[in-house]
Each structure stands twice: as structure tokens, then as C-alpha cells.
């Protein structure tokens, strides 16, 4: 049996009780280093997801495992990969609060008709989506950064936009920034783990 637990934006205080119970009772806990560090008090075997891990082999073992997933496992999350190797009947998915949900609550922007795209290791036509919907949420990576997004918007003629960057959401180091387009293009900072929301006009 494989249980995938969405740990939400990061801090355990935003997780439902049922998810916490699953983690506390786990025999094998699998996740990124940051997630495992959050649950270092759980007395069980821990496996870090990194380049050396044979994930397919792990999933096909007889061990009952609990996988810690960022945000919601079904929103650009690890659940899709797990379901390639494990029968649906043997998988339980516990949804978590996505970082986009958390961010929108912080900046008071409705998620109604909000496209959510991931630029993490991929290209997406977020320009056209923004033209259609007037707002968009984006997962980033070390190449497609908030500044990269701002530069692309500038190159495509956008002017009256607000760009919100949420960094280290839910952790003690959380920072939420609000930028004008040109301001972010010139902003000289390497953001840590972050999500971006772009809104056109007054929203």
C-alpha cells in the first residue's frame, strides 16, 4: 500500500489531522530532504527522493510506504508518477493545501478562473493564458524565475500588471512581495522556493 500525503505549503500546522496521523504511524517515510526534516521526530525508516533513488523499484516493493508530496499531490505533483507504477486500488491520496491556494489567500485574489501552470523544468505558454484570463499562477524553477517571467511579460507588451512572489510559504522565513513589472525586471535577488501570481489591472 502506498499513501501519498500532500503536506501543503510546507509547515505541518497547515495539514489536516488525518494526514498527520498517517505520517506519525508510518513505517517508511519517503520525501524530499526539506519534508523529511519537518518530520524528523517520526521514529521510522526515512528515504530521501533524489537522483540516486530507484523510485520504480521502491514503489514495487512489499513495504507500506508514506510519500510526502509538496502542496497537493495531484497539482503538478508526484501522484501522477506513482500511479504509473502502482494500481489505483493500492494507492491512497490525501490532498493538501497547494502553495497557490495558500498564496491566493494571502494576497486576497480569487482562484475562480485562475489558470495554474508549472514552469518547473518545462516551457508553458503563460503569455497567452494571461491574455485570456487576466490572471495566472505559476510554479517556477532556477531558470524560469520571477524575473524571467517579468522579462517575458515586458517583451510581450504587458504594462499594467501586478506580480506577486511568495517565497518560503508557511515557513518562518516566509516573504510575500508585490511588484510592478519594471520593478521586478530590475530586482536583484535570487528567490528561494517560490510561487508567482500575475494579475492584470485592478484585481
TrEMBL record:
**A Pfam entry, by short name:** TP_methylase
Q: Which domain of life is it from?
A: Bacteria
Q: Which UniProt keywords apply?
A: Cobalamin biosynthesis, Methyltransferase, S-adenosyl-L-methionine, Transferase
Which InterPro entries did the record assign? 4pyrrol_Mease (IPR000878), 4pyrrol_Methylase_sf (IPR035996), 4pyrrole_Mease_sub1 (IPR014777), 4pyrrole_Mease_sub2 (IPR014776), CbiE (IPR012818), Cobalamin_biosynth_MTase (IPR050714)
Question: What's an example Gene Ontology biological process for this entry?
Answer: cobalamin biosynthetic process
One GO term in the molecular function aspect is: protein methyltransferase activity
Pathway linked to the protein: Cofactor biosynthesis; adenosylcobalamin biosynthesis
Domain Tetrapyrrole methylase residues, every copy: 1-184
- Keyword Transferase in the entry? The reply is yes
Instruction: Indicate what this protein is called per its UniProt record.
Output: Tetrapyrrole methylase domain-containing protein
Its lineage opens with: Bacteria, Bacillati, Bacillota, Clostridia, Thermoanaerobacterales
